[in-house]
Specification:
328 residues; alpha/beta; 6-stranded mixed beta sheet; 4-stranded parallel beta sheet; 11 helices
């Protein structure tokens, strides 16, 4: 059925005139998910108006700090030592993005990481709109078991060669985005485009690399000494209200698979001033799950208690604008 849709979309009359003229499918690997984290590599696939590949580009980036979760992206301090700084590649990166819609899996994260890097470099990324493939796949009602990139790839028969390598993840996403875009075009669906606002602030606290002896040399042991998070310094302001921003101190619980590593997603919530809860109670402000019909204990309790539920993509959007604890 999808093949019929994509074939139909190739005709000139089937393509919506309102659709963008080009896309930049992006993946960035980072030292973590907090505001002060840095990009360690970036991959971009440039696509034309109908999703056909025009060019691709990849670079590593020296984050000037411990590279973070090496077990995920595979880039050690040694591998990044001779890599360019972000400021050195900012102009080239911009040429890959300019005049295109930024497409990414959980796009709000990639956009915020890119925007902060440009802010540090005293510039702005030339991106006006972004499109999240998690949101697009949900609006297309694709029968995915979860919202991980590997599941989207498997649905379209795309072979993933090097998971968490920025260029290969961008390639995989580009190949999965093409049939998604064409299916949306045939259905006359309005694309879920979001405005990319210029970044005016960022946090840039230096991190001390954790080093430990190992044989004849040293190795990185991660970007923090333990997985234990500090207690949330803000009081719980109560439940999240749909349509309003999150507020520092809110208790957030997670259930089920997420498109990014759970620990990193929880780190980002903690960095925004939220209280990450391991269980769900009447005090929980919000439950984040990509499968509200899963029947897990947290989902069942959320229904019993009337706790609001949002998916990962919506939570990512909310994280971009968390209200300070002092407000209201």
């Amino acid at each position: 059925m999808l093949e019929d849709l994509t074939t139909a979309a190739s005709s000139a009359t089937a393509w919506p005139a309102s659709y963008p003229q080009g896309y930049a499918v992006v993946d960035v690997e980072t030292t973590g998910l907090a505001r002060d984290d840095r990009i360690v590599s970036a991959g971009v696939y440039q696509l034309d108006a109908r999703g056909e590949v025009e060019d691709h580009w990849y670079t590593t980036v020296n984050p000037e700090r411990d590279p973070g979760p090496v077990w995920i992206h595979g880039l050690t301090s040694e591998a990044l030592e001779g890599a360019p700084l972000f400021g050195d590649i900012a102009e080239e990166f911009a040429t890959r993005l300019e005049g295109r819609v930024l497409v990414a899996h959980n796009a709000v994260f990639d956009w915020q990481m890119i925007a902060r890097e440009y802010a540090r470099a005293g510039a702005q990324a030339p991106v006006k709109q972004r499109l999240c493939t998690i949101v697009l796949s949900k609006e297309l009602r694709l029968p995915l078991p979860n919202h991980k990139l590997e599941s989207l790839a498997a649905h379209f028969g795309v072979v993933q060669r090097r998971a968490h390598h920025a260029l290969d993840d961008a390639r995989v996403l580009a190949e999965a985005f093409r049939p998604s875009l064409r299916a949306a075009a045939v259905g006359g669906m309005r694309l879920p485009l979001h405005e990319c606002l210029p970044l005016t602030e960022w946090t840039d606290r230096p991190r001390v690399a954790q080093q430990a002896g190992h044989g004849g040399g040293h190795r990185s042991t991660g970007w923090r000494p333990s997985r234990k998070r500090p207690a949330c310094p803000y009081p719980n302001p109560g439940r999240y209200e749909p349509g309003k921003p999150l507020k520092q101190g809110m208790r957030v619980a997670f259930s089920g698979d997420t498109s990014v590593e759970r620990d990193l997603l929880e780190d980002r919530a903690t960095g925004a001033g939220l209280h990450v809860a391991t269980s769900l109670s009447r005090l929980t402000s919000l439950l984040v799950t990509n499968d509200p019909d899963s029947g897990t204990s947290k989902v069942v309790k959320a229904r019993q208690y009337g706790t609001p539920v949002v998916d990962e993509a919506a939570f990512g959007q909310l994280l971009g604008d968390v209200a300070p604890a002092s407000e209201g």
